[in-house]
Amino acid sequence: MRAKSSELSPHCKKVLDLLSKSSKPMSAYDILDQLRQSGIKAPPTVYRALETLMERGMVHRIESLNSFVACHSEHKEHNAKFAVCRNCGNATEIHDPRLTTFINNLAKKLDFHIEREMLELSGLCADCNHEHAH
Questions:
Q1: Neighbours of 16 (CB within 10 A)
Q2: Is 89 left (phi over 0), alpha (psi -120 to 50) or beta?
Q3: pLDDT for 98-127, tens place per residue?
Q4: Which of 26, 41, 50, 96 suits a disulfide with 30, CB 3.0-4.6 Å?
Q5: Residues 117, 103: contact at Cβ < 8 Å?
Q6: Average pLDDT over the chain, rounded to whole?
Q7: β-bridge pairing 59-62 and 91-94
Q8: Which residue has the higher pLDDT, 79 or 86?
Q9: Could you tell me which of 106, 101, 78, 82 has the C-alpha nearest to residue 93?
Q10: Could you give the domains of the chain?
Q11: Does the pTM of the predicted model rise above 0.85?
């Protein structure tokens, strides 16, 4: 169940607001640097806020970039899938129920209980792909 942002601590609200406005994934230290002036001065504070936001499905971690993005979807799915551009670093969240169904069916076939799902496609976004083509 997704929590409302009104139920969040002030630190969580600041981190979520910053990630929501960012056009690219941000590392915990990027977040700390941006929020230092607003009173968040220690890495553990950022990590605790990120952990809370991830548990609530409001933020996703992009493993390959060791960075975080705000969830911009109304889907209840916590196992986000991303297409990550290796050139510019943009990460596009993918929500396709067919992919979720396929992965769940595969797990059943394998008699495998998924505890954590991470799917990241690495390549070039449309803009970077067009630049490389010229």
A1: 21
A2: left
A3: 998 999 999 999 999 988 788 999 999 999
A4: 26
A5: yes
A6: 88
A7: unpaired
A8: 86
A9: 82
A10: 7-133 (1.10.10.10)
A11: no
